[in-house]
Fold these 2 entries.
Entry 1:
Amino acid sequence: MKIALDAMGGDNAPHVTVLGARNALKLYADIDKLFLVGDAHALEKEMAECKLTDPRAVITHAPEVVGMDESGAKTLRRKKKSSISIATDMVKSGEADAVVSAGNTGAAVAAATVKLRTLKGVDRAGIASAIPNEHGICQILDAGANPEAKPQHLITYAVMGAVYAKNVLGVDVPRVGLMSNGEEDEKGTTFTKETFALLKHLQSTGRAPFEFVGNVEGHDLFESKLDVVLCDGFTGNIILKSCEATAKAMSKWLKLEFKRSPFRIMGAAIARGAFKAVKKKSSYEYVGGSPLLGVNGVCIIGHGSSSALAIQNAIRVARETVSLKVNPHIEETLAAMHRPSEDEAANA
Amino acid sequence: MKIALDAMGGDNAPHVTVLGARNALKLYADIDKLFLVGDAHALEKEMAECKLTDPRAVITHAPEVVGMDESGAKTLRRKKKSSISIATDMVKSGEADAVVSAGNTGAAVAAATVKLRTLKGVDRAGIASAIPNEHGICQILDAGANPEAKPQHLITYAVMGAVYAKNVLGVDVPRVGLMSNGEEDEKGTTFTKETFALLKHLQSTGRAPFEFVGNVEGHDLFESKLDVVLCDGFTGNIILKSCEATAKAMSKWLKLEFKRSPFRIMGAAIARGAFKAVKKKSSYEYVGGSPLLGVNGVCIIGHGSSSALAIQNAIRVARETVSLKVNPHIEETLAAMHRPSEDEAANA
């Protein structure tokens, strides 16, 4: 398997990208080539410093970078030699099986959708971001690729999220919920109500590759047995950032409170294993990266402030998405849903 | 001052409503009457148990209750003798200055908007929910009254939130942000971009009673000097519930981890003051209730799972909103914004 890493993408690149690449290569024997795409000079230096000598790590020079604060799609058109652009081109040409980027999300999404196009049966791609849930992993879909989604897009997201949950996370019958402002069936906006009706209809045909559990709310993300939570990309992006910000604020306030007395500092030190365990459960470092589902190629999007561990895990997600054939499964599942049933064929 | 409390509203009513009423009466000498609206028999019994003997506590019988799981607006039309309906009628008739309810939010909003109507210059009411922020209180507006808001509604929300921040929270020039999926000016949906342009325009006229700081994201809720975060009621409701759910999940997971070893339990016990302080900072119990801004009367909405402390604080919020004349200030501010300036008057 060959993976193209946007080695210049992210707040802490290229240091953490090179470190993450080194650690991933140590762990994963099935990676044949890991292309580090970016400024060759900077990357050579970083590789020497990080002692990355594995011959599978290959630098592909890209003279430009899309900055984290630049308008992704616009800058992409201007910077044709940027690391994310060239890394995505490598997937398009078949040189690589997947692209991984913790850089500008807008640029990564635009590069993938423009260069790779969408899978057969898919109108719009969506980012599946993992939320740590008591029963496993709950994916928010879409977490930001398609801010003004149409109801039909969410139906495809439901199918793609279910295929991912089944093939990568090992869930037999994935449970899909629709994010709304209340759990009752009649709650929501015109948009969510239309989506709700389409999901109910699909469920009633017996062709949905998932179980639709109805409207869900914030607490369901963490507590309920749920594999996919559907929403438009605007809402999903805001949910994800709000949850992350809450966890960060709680942790910061707790640290400040500990520092108010030597006893509290001691108590916190004694219980530190618990804090580490919760941090591990809730941190995106362990999740790694979010697949951009629906593009014709594998594209994994990392958090802008990814650490080396996050990069390593984003590479793991890319490996899984490729080797477990998520894209072929998505196309097959969508085709099967639209194929006439035996009864329909007989009546035709 | 006279306050009508929906004594049957909330998951733990009437026990916590009566307890909260008793405690509020002990604290606030400026309450002349506190009407406990609900089933007279149940309330008499509860008052005896809670030793609520203050003569300012007066039962107003209401034979019906809108359940927490019922469709608020629909049920309200059917249950004309429900506690929330009668409590709101008392504000309409002038018997009470404010209504406080921790019951079905949909019913409380519908009762207030239908019976009290909106203030002059206000099209739609919005719920201002407080988020604990490092610099004080940040209000999310709207937190759920108006799920499909129009850009113009958010302009009025900005003004109302600013008036509340100025008059109740003591902020000189309130800072207002627009929730979006990124901080850059060009981020957002058609809806947020239109709202952004209207806010920029209002700011440019010099007539905005606030400073518009642009688009904001999840972390700004907790970290940035911000008094009001604008969004439609669908998004606001989801943000609020997601933040609350994250805090709850973190706290639950931490407790589970502490229990894994006696050392951790001991450490957590030694540091317990820190946990209590963060809980106090982040709990809605201390916030109390959220004003429904824009209705012609004071309506304070409490959390469904309000404790006695939350009810007591919701009554405090009602007192402040009445005595600090939030509604007259909103009407004056909106009128002043639309009044021609001296230059315009001279040119007319």
Note: The CA atoms of residues 340 and 348 of chain A lie 9 Å apart.
Entry 2:
Amino acid sequence: AFKGAPEIKGKGGWSFKPRGRLQYDAGFVNAPDSTNRGGGFGNDIRRARLGVSGDMPGGFGYKFEVDVANSDLAVTDAIISYEAGDVEIMVGQFNNFQSLEELTSSLHTSFIERAAYTDAFNFIRRVGIGVEYGSGDVMVQGGIFTDNMDRLSNDAWSANGRVVYMPKVGDTQLHFGGTVNYREVAPGSTVRYRQRPLVAFTSDRFINTGNFAAESEFSYGVEGAFVSGRFHGAVEGYWRNVNTPMMAADPTFFGGYAELGYYLTKGDTRGYSGGKFGRTKPANAVGAGGIGSVQINARYDRLDLSDAGIIGGTQNGYFLSLVWKPTDYTMLLANYGKLDYSNAVFPTATGDTDYSVDVFGVRAQIDF
Amino acid sequence: AFKGAPEIKGKGGWSFKPRGRLQYDAGFVNAPDSTNRGGGFGNDIRRARLGVSGDMPGGFGYKFEVDVANSDLAVTDAIISYEAGDVEIMVGQFNNFQSLEELTSSLHTSFIERAAYTDAFNFIRRVGIGVEYGSGDVMVQGGIFTDNMDRLSNDAWSANGRVVYMPKVGDTQLHFGGTVNYREVAPGSTVRYRQRPLVAFTSDRFINTGNFAAESEFSYGVEGAFVSGRFHGAVEGYWRNVNTPMMAADPTFFGGYAELGYYLTKGDTRGYSGGKFGRTKPANAVGAGGIGSVQINARYDRLDLSDAGIIGGTQNGYFLSLVWKPTDYTMLLANYGKLDYSNAVFPTATGDTDYSVDVFGVRAQIDF
Amino acid sequence: AFKGAPEIKGKGGWSFKPRGRLQYDAGFVNAPDSTNRGGGFGNDIRRARLGVSGDMPGGFGYKFEVDVANSDLAVTDAIISYEAGDVEIMVGQFNNFQSLEELTSSLHTSFIERAAYTDAFNFIRRVGIGVEYGSGDVMVQGGIFTDNMDRLSNDAWSANGRVVYMPKVGDTQLHFGGTVNYREVAPGSTVRYRQRPLVAFTSDRFINTGNFAAESEFSYGVEGAFVSGRFHGAVEGYWRNVNTPMMAADPTFFGGYAELGYYLTKGDTRGYSGGKFGRTKPANAVGAGGIGSVQINARYDRLDLSDAGIIGGTQNGYFLSLVWKPTDYTMLLANYGKLDYSNAVFPTATGDTDYSVDVFGVRAQIDF
């Protein structure tokens, strides 16, 4: 059967499926002229991934994918898994267990990029071992990690856990989650938190703590979401406390967002399963007598990187998106964002660091 | 069905096919000894590509391929496409619409490398959007591009168009084409045009304009070709005018070639479709009672990089090739070239810059 | 049919199979504290490979695989092959014909890493042409190579040959082999021989000749092995003589090992075919009513890098491993090693260079 690419199955539990995705982004970033930032037009092959996944008799499985966007190689998932009953064990490199927004595939987000805090707080895939327990409406996940294989360290490590409760009440899917993360950085190293204005085709980060010495990070987050017919909503908050050897007080930074979405097309609903959002499958796709699904979304995206003497700046982002999925595996997305910054790192000619940046971005996407 | 690799099809318009090619080159380059160039024996994994292509219901498709020759990663095609009737729209990275020789796959060329001007004038894949219209004997192509994703710039851009008329007269396939290209380089940057002697396993470019400041390039080309039974012929000319901010006159460089080929084996003919040469499928392949197809080709390859005060040198190349295709997806190629240079960049001990370089190259190739 | 991944076949001799492997290693290295080496805990994505192989009508075939571990790209095999009767010709990049241990896939070794001399003496894949003749119990292999495509040189070259006699005596598979290798290094360059303590997740090489000028290497090796029911054994010796332009005498270094293994699980035996060890297929796999195969192995691993005035150090390694294969395509391995060094390159605080290093390593592996 085709799931974008063909999934080939064999007797006894064998399966194999090629995987891939292409995302092409373009748009504009407009900051106050005198900051000499923003740059106007930009474009980017955002993701260009190719990989495979499969199952084997006995409960074993694998998922292995690389990203080659801009002809730079990065391994994304490299997972050996074993499933027995309600428990799955994973070894290799994969996403750590934190944040509904982060764990939702980049194919299925409502905006061109995820909420600001996920990048700002360096959510990346790391090498380690994880365990997932799922039964009915409850899911518990936990793992121990070293670092991303691109910069594999034997000195840094982290442990994290996530709990999700996802009851269905009538026709409404609810989602409640919480996550805790502890990470010890390599001795003598520093941390830095910073973020771009919504789109990835600019390299200007208007808010940025700069590097500072740290020993460890302790983080916790809360997640809430619902899917009800054409509507969905999500809200998350995430706090990062940094243990700093040199400073009088340890700063706690915050990021979070709230979003609401609605399908203009009848019969369409946002996919959800396994503690994260999934694929939207248009009720009436192009090629099957329809025009696909059309969804509008609004989001407020907050990031506060100023605390305890560190002035990294704050962002209040107001975003609108229009997501058109002609078919299950294709997407066109347009979004506009207005980012109100305080204490931005690039001052205007008059020394002002409180200003707005406007961004507009479109994405063409196919996956298989 | 197998087309090198299996093409898997599903109901409703689904298809999926892995893709790949391996090319191993070896040979000799002999320049006058006192130039200290040429280097004698050389060898190279010329191309090592792996990728996928597929179709989806609703008219969508993709092609995604990477080249890993010499363990360097380069994305070649990364295309999201949509086809409706006679029109196809493409987004991503792909070959710009210029030159029969450039658009013909590197699997199906008559010589080990394409005509000198295609490299010299920096024909590369670029990120952008393209439209193709094809109906009957006419094809029209146009696109707007930024740059190759390896060095993606938001400052350079180009636009180009190509028209092809390809009537079949009796048993003879004719091809007439024309192309126009305008490219604005990134402000403050330079251009350079240069070329190796036929083979890629040497790094010596005997003709070379060196870097010089430029604002834009305007180029136009003409194409002619025929395929008639065992014979085929092709001739192209391409002019590049460079808008230079610093020089009194803007130089116009020229490249072009004329080739003639003939199959020694009965029943063989050169593939042609969609405005470019295609795959040769031997009438009597190895493994099916035959020896495959054997073709001889002769080419004159001209490149003139001297104009308006820039002395990049000129090349008059005389090439012969023997192409043996044991089967549809395998090839062995041998070719000899004599390159007469004027104003070459490497003088001999006596200061002479007008001399000949001899090259001999063989290729082993498989694709799927 | 599934061989890890599905092998797709077509009429006339077509076949196609995706290929891949993931290996995740972790463990400890303990050296005397005052050497400031060893580093304690380490972990590593040892191999992350993806590729394809296939056959074509007429006797042609290909194998093409890349390794992306740690997000570094390296092409492993890139082979175009042609088979006619008992003879196979290969062109591209592949393993040179030397050492049972080296030619046995990294999926099927008895320990986490191969014998010390295989790395120390720089056994790598190289670009070239090879011929293999196999008939009955005899196999003869020979090839001419340039270098690995990652650093492809047109100045270095090597030629090598290997002969294997592999009779079956009753139920016992015997293996006898010999290999000769001559390699000319690029003019003006140096060689260096060194090795880690058993595991790859440390970068400390305790024995190391350092770089020294060389013109060529002449090497020869002998191989012996048997597989008999649950038992297997192997012993190899390999001598490398270095032609040095600057030294009074040319050094000859030596490496070798002897190993013995036994399956604790009934009905299991070590795979062997084509002059090398193959895949262990558990008689009673997980998911089919069994626990898979469990094997214990012991090895002595010798490497002597001191001769003719060069004091690179010597290693006497004593290793034990436990190899658990739950299923044909999955493996968990644990091994312990004690490495007695003489003339190690990292002295202790008291200047001692004769000491022991302990290592413990585990591996999780899946392939397809």
Note: The two ends of chain A are 12 Å apart (CA to CA).
